[in-house]
């Protein structure tokens, strides 16, 4: 079969061969063929490994396991481990067979059963077969004891409660002379310590001395060919012992003291020129870092890691960097001594080592070493690979911002980074640089001159160009006048034309994006006031962008050219220097501790939680999206809300004030609706509409309809002719010419849902002329003494219904019925008159920081909805 499958040239041929073989195996199964059952199962295992379904052969595994002979059992157990897993119900049928085999006189059959149990044991099987496995831990044959220990590991992972039954047998395994049994015993004790505190305490008291002695004998043992690997005696056992010592010593000072000497001996005597020795040293370092404090051992461990960093093997260096990142939290000074070696790893050709070394350098930086470390990183930035520049730039910027000794150093380092890798610098970094520059008033001249020189050499770095253009626009006169020259500067001469040249060159670079070119236009506007002699040239540059295809640039160019050409008197006031930016506030905003904007409105703004509808007292404001969250909503809905919307006070305080106010209100409304200047004959009707007089109350009543859709207004008198075109622009909000309408039918309120802690009531209403649509107002009352927070109501309806849920009035429900939450629903019934409403609901809320979910179905809707 295998030969024929391998000879197939296409997947279709392979599938045909497999189908043929599976058919033959099924026929043999149905005929209960005893002689070839084990061979058929071997074929099934091969077919299973190719990825074809073999579930029909699972019962054959059980039959072979029940066979008396060893060869059949071996194939049966192998098939059991391959074709089944612990989730299969068929596995329950094999428990009794495994139990019988665990008590078999043939040790090889016992070994088969232990191997299978260790691979596919479920929690039920673990409970049933644990006594047999515990007995086998004292079996005479070491191979059986070894397999029993491995099987026990599986059992205690499946059922941790059984771990206490195995404490004494596991401790006995630690005294074994056979290395295979001892290795599995150590691993069993390690896993037991992780699942049972009782086992952990027992091993700390009873076994620590024996473990130290075993490790000492291994470290000092002479050459043993049976266990020797590269001149080291059984490195696998040594590593397992070190891991167990790590678990026992963590959090226990006495146990840690007991193992200090042997750890120092292993660390100093183990050879590091072979991979096996390096593995032992690594585990020894990990153990030293995990147990209780011993500064001398930790220095020794960090020195070993330093030797690892000098290795030519990339894997060894990588694990050393990982371990040093853990060690830095325990002994920073010891790791600082390896700083030079770690810095060399930042320049390593291997990308993984570079990245991990950079993260470690970032953790090493403090106030005392920030300057030399930053210098090394900035120097490497010049020659680093393109794919590494992004990570390196981000870390340098973070270091410079975190530990700046003085502002001039911070500015110098940031300019170096911007010059070398400005295209990799994030926006918030150069924003922060500008904030620092504005606060360093004595460095304005130095900064703008440094930027001018930098942008001449690295004009392709976009972020550098942005910062330079901004500073030239703000401090251009200091650049030209050589103001605030420091002793460390080289003198340079810059004319007004030179400064404009830099901005002009930047704006002409097509590779630069919209933000940079927009900043250039603003800088030119400011320079037109600071450099009057270049005003004409600047205006020509700005005018060139009046035909730009980018709307933002076109608009700025038109506005700025108008300011330069026509408004010279106000230009100097418009382009004054930016005020000093609050460094503390900006830093707080970046950290997320300061709100982005502070309300300056008088009075407390309304507390509107996320996801809750705004007060319905001003529906037209919401409709036109002209509301302000900083403005308190009016306490009650009155007829003068349109005046509030327009910002117009039309109260008849005096005749003159009334006329002016009405006119301004007219202009505002016409501007709002983009109508233009009203004709003379319609102005009176417009003023009438804005007037709060009783005669023209219809416009307010019309908008009242929007505020309360569940109530139907009575018939209104016809409105003045001037209102009609205005309201047409608002999509026909004007009064309907139809005759008076009567209120729709009334429906009784129903208790839609009630539990021991919550009550929900539905109130119903209909829209006139739309019987298919039902408006529901849900009211939620809290029956318990606890406050409900994060209250969310959800509903679902069948396909013949359409449901629209509005946000609730709050997300906090007061305790003991001292308040309620209301939420409006709109349900449209496409089968109105044929099918009644039905709804499933789900309510989520928190009580004492615990999530609560309540669900139900509502079938008691009034008839006719």
Automatic annotation (TrEMBL):
Residues 593-614, 674-749 are annotated as: Disordered. The keyword Transport applies. PROSITE patterns: GAE. Its main location: membrane. Pfam families: Adaptin_N, Alpha_adaptinC2. It is found in: Cytoplasmic vesicle, Clathrin-coated vesicle membrane; Golgi apparatus. Residues 682-693, 705-721 have a biased composition (Low complexity). Subunit of clathrin-associated adaptor protein complex 1 that plays a role in protein sorting at the trans-Golgi network and early endosomes (TGN/EE). The AP complexes mediate both the recruitment of clathrin to membranes and the recognition of sorting signals within the cytosolic tails of transmembrane cargo molecules. This is AP-1 complex subunit gamma. It comes from Penstemon smallii.
């Amino acid at each position: 079969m295998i030969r024929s499958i391998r000879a197939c040239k296409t997947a279709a041929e392979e599938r045909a061969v497999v189908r043929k073989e599976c058919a033959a195996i099924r026929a043999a199964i149905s005929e209960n063929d005893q002689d070839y059952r084990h061979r058929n199962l071997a074929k099934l295992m091969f077919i299973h490994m190719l990825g074809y379904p073999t579930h029909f052969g699972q019962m054959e595994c059980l039959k072979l396991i029940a066979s008396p002979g060893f060869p059949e059992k071996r194939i049966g157990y192998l098939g059991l481990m391959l074709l089944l897993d612990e989730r299969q119900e068929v596995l329950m049928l094999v428990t009794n067979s495994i139990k019988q085999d665990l008590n078999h006189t043939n040790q090889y059959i016992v070994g088969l059963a232990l191997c299978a149990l260790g691979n596919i044991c479920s929690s039920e099987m673990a409970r049933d077969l644990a006594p047999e496995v515990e007995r086998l831990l004292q079996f005479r044959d070491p191979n059986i004891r070894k397999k029993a220990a491995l099987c026990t590991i599986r059992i205690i992972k499946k059922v941790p409660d059984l771990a206490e039954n195995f404490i004494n047998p596991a401790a006995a395994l630690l005294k074994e002379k056979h290395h295979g049994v001892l290795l599995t015993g150590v691993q069993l004790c390690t896993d037991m310590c992780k699942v049972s505190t009782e086992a952990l305490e027992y091993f700390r008291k009873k076994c620590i001395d024996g473990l130290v002695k075993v490790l000492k004998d291994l470290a000092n043992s002479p050459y043993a060919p049976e266990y020797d690997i590269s001149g080291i005696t059984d490195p696998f056992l040594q590593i397992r012992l070190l891991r167990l010592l790590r678990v026992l010593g963590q959090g226990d000072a006495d146990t840690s003291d007991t193992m200090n000497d042997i750890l120092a001996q292993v660390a100093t005597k183990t050879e590091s020129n072979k991979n096996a020795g390096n593995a032992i040293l690594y585990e020894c370092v990990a153990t030293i870092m995990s147990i209780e404090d011993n500064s001398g051992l930790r220095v020794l461990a960090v020195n070993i890691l330093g030797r690892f960093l000098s290795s030519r093997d990339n894997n060894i260096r990588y694990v050393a960097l990982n371990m040093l990142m853990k060690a830095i939290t325990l002994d920073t000074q010891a790791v600082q001594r390896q700083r030079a070696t770690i810095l060399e790893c930042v320049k390593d050709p291997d990308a993984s080592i570079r990245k991990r070394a950079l993260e470690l350098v970032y953790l090493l930086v403090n106030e005392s070493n920030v300057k030399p470390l930053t210098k090394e990183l900035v120097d490497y930035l010049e020659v680093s690979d393109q794919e590494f520049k992004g990570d390196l730039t981000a870390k340098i910027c973070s270091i410079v911002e975190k530990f700046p000794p003085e502002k001039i150093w911070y500015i110098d380092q940031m300019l170096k980074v911007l010059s070398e890798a400005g295209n990799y610098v994030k926006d918030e970094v150069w924003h922060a640089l500008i904030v620092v520059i504005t606060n360093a008033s004595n460095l304005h001249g130095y900064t703008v001159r440094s930027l001018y020189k930098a942008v001449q050499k690295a004009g392709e770095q976009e972020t550098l160009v942005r910062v330079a253009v901004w500073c030239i626009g703000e401090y251009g006169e200091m650049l030209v006048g050589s103001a605030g020259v420091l002793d460390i500067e080289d003198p340079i001469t810059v004319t007004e034309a030179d400064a404009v040249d830099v901005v002009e060159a930047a704006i002409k670079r097509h590779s630069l994006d919209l933000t940079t070119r927009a900043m250039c236009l603003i800088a030119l506007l400011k320079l037109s006031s600071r450099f009057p002699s270049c005003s004409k040239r600047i205006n020509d540059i700005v005018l060139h962008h009046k035909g730009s295809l980018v709307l933002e640039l076109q608009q700025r160019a038109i506005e700025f050219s108008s300011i330069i050409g026509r408004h010279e008197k106000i230009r100097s006031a418009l382009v004054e220097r930016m005020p000093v930016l609050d460094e503390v506030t900006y830093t707080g905003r970046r950290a997320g501790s300061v709100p982005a904007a502070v309300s300056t409105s008088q009075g407390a703004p309304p507390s509107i939680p996320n996801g809750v509808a705004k007060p319905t007292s001003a529906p037209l404001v919401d409709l036109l999206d002209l509301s302000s969250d900083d403005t308190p909503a009016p306490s009650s809905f009155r007829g003068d809300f349109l005046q509030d919307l327009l910002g117009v006070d039309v109260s008849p305080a005096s005749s003159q004030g009334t006329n002016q106010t009405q006119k301004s209100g007219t202009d505002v409304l016409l501007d709002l609706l983009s109508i233009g200047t009203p004709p003379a004959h319609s102005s009176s009707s417009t003023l009438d509409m804005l007037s709060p007089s009783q005669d023209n109350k219809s416009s307010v009543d019309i908008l009242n309809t929007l505020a309360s859709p569940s109530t139907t207004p009575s018939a209104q008198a016809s409105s003045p002719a001037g209102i009609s075109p205005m309201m047409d622009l608002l999509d026909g909000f004007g009064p309907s010419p139809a005759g008076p309408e009567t209120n729709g039918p009334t429906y009784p309120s129903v208790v839609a849902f009630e539990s021991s802690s919550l009550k929900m009531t539905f109130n119903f209403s209909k829209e006139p002329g739309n019987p298919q649509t039902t408006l529901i107002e849900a009211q939620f009352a809290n029956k318990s003494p606890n406050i409900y927070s994060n209250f969310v109501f959800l509903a679902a309806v069948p396909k013949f219904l359409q449901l629209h849920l509005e946000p609730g009035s709050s997300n906090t429900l007061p305790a003991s019925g001292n308040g309620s939450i209301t939420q409006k629903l709109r349900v449209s019934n496409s089968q109105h008159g044929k099918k009644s409403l039905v709804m499933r609901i789900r309510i989520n809320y928190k009580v004492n920081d615990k999530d609560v979910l309540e669900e139900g179905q509502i079938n008691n809707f009034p008839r006719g909805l």
